[in-house]
Amino acid sequence: MLCCAALLLACRSEPSAVEPNRETAVMVAHYQQCGYAKTTLEPIESQQQWAAWLRYRGETRDAPAWRQADQQRWIVAAGFKPTAGYQLNFSPAAEADLVQITVSRAGGIDAVYAQVISSPCVVIDLLQGRFSLLVVTQPDGSQRRFRLTEP
């Protein structure tokens, strides 16, 4: 069974010029247990805040590198899910002004899932000033819109 959600990042009316082949949105990491009860967008404003976020979640492996000066780092969480096996999958779109993230559940019809509450999230870096709106669509079709402001 596949549950989908899309995160759409709409471009500002006058986007800044982007270098050819420059990635405007990059997935930094993904986690199965982030602790967010509902759909959430959280800016990470400093290396210290990023390190604290990782420590709070018990992350002991090497942390993904900190962003470049012209990027914004965001935590995008799907909220609590009723079973294990959910994840957010990042796939850059062909259009420079669109990023899509889908919430999916691994396995097929006969898959067995642990009955635990999960709270998946992804960490993304976005080119600063490139996007102004983020829309999260849950598997049931409900949406949550976030205006992106620079942290």
From TrEMBL:
This is Protease complex subunit PrcB family protein. It comes from Gammaproteobacteria bacterium LSUCC0057.
